């Protein structure tokens, strides 16, 4: 069925060249989906793709296929484009052995586009595989939409995909095989990148796995050496990943329910992937990236979100964070985020009823409250909640996002308010019932490389006793100096953890000194002490750099906002209070 026109646009995953007379049209249409719709529409819904698997994968066989069981593939969508949605459907049909495919279930999450109505139903009715379209009349968000799809599924296995994916040759067999061997395995393909502008198919790496940062954003990180050794260097064996991206995975249907399916209290988008990752590991399952399976995904890039209540670029703290969520973690990610052709976008093309910050904080808090035990403090310290905006002091009417132009009109952020979490008692009861292990166990055994320190002394601000100012990263990066400004109590750049390894850590960066005279810089934490080892003395309140024996103090008169490093003299300027310290 594929490759009817082997030289057609995008065939074999090649980049599409939009003819110059359609460039303007393409530019205008970009914002509809936050990807190049003209390019996508030029590509056949049956386009061919290269076999991107490593050699060792291509020679694996899974006979007899029947024992693996059949899968229902569930694709939820809200206002997806026709061509991306249908390419997802056709790529499933074209590249799945018929004996393994029970049905495809499309769950329409209250889309507002006519072509996704009857036209879609008529189209899928003619396909050689049963395809069902379920409709949510009111926007339920992707989490509840998936629960709806799962509820209707008949297959032994459930496979979830985003609505802008492309499955490559051999994608399904190795996923189902891992579940056949272990019914409590939750398995993800490598997610390849489908470029949002050219629709070129770019193979992802098998050397990245899923993690998360202090903001509880999902991020890709390099696979550590120990995981390669565990597999004796055989990269065609599945990886034990600490977390999953969330959109593309297979799971035994009965096990999906045994382990608590999804948290139906989560709205629209976000955090369900970490929730499921923690839950699976802590409650006895395994989470694998099956490196022999590749599926592509489309990513979004720009920044113009639309929000109920206005359009425009959002400037509050939470939205700066949101942009990172969409990017799945910056450069590291772009190279590796995807491997099942999924279109990766950096901007959301749809609305977030209730506001982005509220929805993300709500979902993330539910994950943190139920699964993270004391480590939820890292999230709360970093992100004390939604911004409160007002025009004058004492006027804090607006919670959440305020547009740039309004800020210029005199809006200022005047405080912060924690988002409500809702009722989590049922999820806590589930954790009890399943007798799940602690988050400490998870960090120690599954994710010791985490940037959440397994053992820590404090997490919070580092406040100087003399000036009442706080150490602040100023949003700077590795290799740059730290700063010091008035404490603002809003988390973010002023949150540090003093760890049992005696480092001062903020997310993945540590305070580091490489010259006796300083300055104190930020460097990637290496966990080996050395330049990153500090002694905090709870009697004298001093922070002494161990190698250089120098003490941290307020900036010298000429240094503006850079904390000093000098001989320890017991002065008030060298005394520091650490946020919520709890000497255990
Ligand atoms: O209200 C909504 N209703 C929906 O049905 C909002 C979204 N959706 C659908 C949407 O049409 C799409 O099919 O949900 C799916 C995911 O939304 P995207 O594609 O707009 O976002 P995303 O690709 O960034 O989503 C990633 O993170 C989500 C967190 O909730 C989900 O886990 C997505 O499945 C996940 N996607 C992937 O893992 C693909 C790889 C991206 C990375 C890293
Ligand atoms: Mn997606």
Write a structural description.
This protein is α+β, with helices and mostly antiparallel strands. It contains 17 helices and 31 strands. The protein folds into two domains: 1-383 and 422-452, Spore Coat Polysaccharide Biosynthesis Protein SpsA, Chain A (Alpha-Beta Complex), CATH 3.90.550; 456-578, Trefoil (Acidic Fibroblast Growth Factor, subunit A), CATH 2.80.10. Helix content is 26%, strand content 24%. The strands form ten sheets. The chain has a five-stranded mixed β-sheet with strand order 3-2-1-4-11, with helices on both faces. Strand 16 (386-390) and strand 17 form a beta hairpin. The chain starts with 22 loop residues before the first helix and ends in a 6-residue tail after the last strand. Mean pLDDT is 88; it is low at 302-342. Manganese (II) ion is lined by residues 162, 164, 247, 297, 342. The site of ligand LR7 has 27 residues, from strand 1, helix 6 and helix 10.
User: How far do the termini sit from each other?
Assistant: 65 Å
The number of distinct β-strands equals: 31
Bound molecules: ligand LR7, manganese (II) ion
Tell me the name of the CATH homologous superfamily of the largest domain: Spore Coat Polysaccharide Biosynthesis Protein SpsA, Chain A
What's the shape? globular
Tell me the strand order in the biggest sheet. Answer: 3-2-1-4-11
* Radius of gyration, taken over Cα atoms and rounded to an integer in Å: 25 Å
Spans of 5+ residues with little confidence (pLDDT < 50)?
302-342
CATH topology of the largest domain: Spore Coat Polysaccharide Biosynthesis Protein SpsA, Chain A
Main location: Golgi
Enzyme class: transferase
Family: Belongs to the glycosyltransferase 2 family. GalNAc-T subfamily.
Subcellular location: Golgi apparatus membrane
């Amino acid at each position: 069925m594929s490759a009817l026109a082997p030289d057609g646009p995008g065939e074999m995953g090649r980049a599409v060249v939009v003819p110059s007379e359609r460039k303007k049209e393409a530019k205008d249409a970009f914002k509809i989906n936050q990807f190049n719709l003209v390019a996508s529409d030029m590509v056949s819904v049956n386009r061919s793709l290269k076999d991107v698997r490593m050699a060792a994968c291509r020679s694996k066989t899974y006979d007899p296929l029947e024992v693996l069981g059949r899968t229902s593939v569930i694709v939820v969508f809200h206002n997806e484009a026709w061509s991306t949605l249908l390419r997802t459907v056709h790529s499933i049909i074209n590249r799945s052995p018929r004996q393994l495919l029970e049905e495809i279930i499309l769950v329409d999450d209250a889309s507002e586009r006519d072509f996704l109505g009857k036209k879609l139903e008529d189209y899928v009715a003619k396909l050689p595989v049963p395809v069902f379209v379920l409709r949510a009349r009111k926007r339920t968000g992707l989490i509840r939409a998936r629960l709806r799809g799962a509820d209707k599924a008949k297959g032994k296995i459930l496979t979830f995909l985003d609505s802008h994916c492309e499955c490559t040759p051999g994608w399904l067999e190795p996923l189902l095989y891992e579940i056949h061997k272990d019914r409590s395995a939750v398995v993800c393909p490598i997610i390849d990148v489908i470029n949002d502008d050219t629709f070129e198919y770019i193979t992802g790496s098998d050397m990245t796995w899923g993690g998360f940062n202090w903001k509880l954003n999902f991020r890709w990180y390099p696979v550590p050496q120990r995981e390669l050794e565990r597999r004796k260097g055989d990269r065609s064996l599945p990886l034990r990943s600490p977390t999953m991206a969330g959109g593309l995975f297979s799971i035994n249907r009965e096990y999906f329910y045994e382990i608590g399916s999804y948290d139906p209290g989560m709205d629209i988008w976000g955090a369900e992937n970490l929730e499921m990752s923690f839950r699976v590991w802590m409650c006895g399952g395994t989470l694998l990236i099956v490196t022999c399976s590749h599926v592509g995904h489309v990513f979004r890039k720009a920044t113009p979100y639309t929000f109920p209540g206005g359009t425009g670029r959002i400037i509050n703290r939470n939205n700066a964070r949101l942009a990172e969520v969409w990017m799945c973690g910056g450069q590291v990610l772009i190279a590796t985020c995807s491997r099942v052709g999924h279109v990766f976008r950096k901007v959301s093309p749809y609305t977030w009823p209730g506001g982005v910050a509220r929805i993300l904080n709500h979902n993330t808090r539910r994950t943190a409250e139920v699964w993270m035990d004391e480590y939820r403090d890292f999230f709360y310290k970093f992100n004390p909640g939604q911004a409160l905006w007002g025009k004058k002091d004492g006027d804090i009417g607006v919670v959440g996002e305020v547009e740039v132009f309004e800020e210029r009109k005199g809006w200022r952020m005047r405080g912060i308010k924690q988002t409500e979490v809702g009722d989590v008692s049922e999820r806590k009861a589930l954790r009890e019932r399943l007798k799940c292990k602690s988050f400490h166990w998870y960090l120690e055994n599954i994710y010791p490389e985490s940037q959440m320190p397994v053992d820590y002394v404090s997490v919070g601000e580092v406040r100087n006793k003399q000036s009442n100012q706080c150490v602040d990263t100023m949003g700077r990066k590795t290799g740059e100096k730290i700063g010091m400004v008035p404490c603002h109590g809003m988390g973010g750049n002023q949150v540090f953890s003093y760890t049992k390894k005696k480092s001062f850590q903020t997310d993945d960066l540590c305070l580091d000194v490489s010259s006796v005279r300083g300055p104190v810089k930020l460097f990637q934490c290496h966990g080996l002490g050395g330049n990153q080892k500090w002694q905090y003395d709870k009697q004298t309140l001093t922070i002494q750099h161990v190698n250089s024996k120098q003490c941290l103090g307020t900036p010298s008169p000429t240094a503006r906002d850079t904390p000093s490093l000098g001989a320890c003299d017991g002065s008030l300027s060298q005394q520091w209070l650490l946020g919520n310290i709890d000497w255990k």
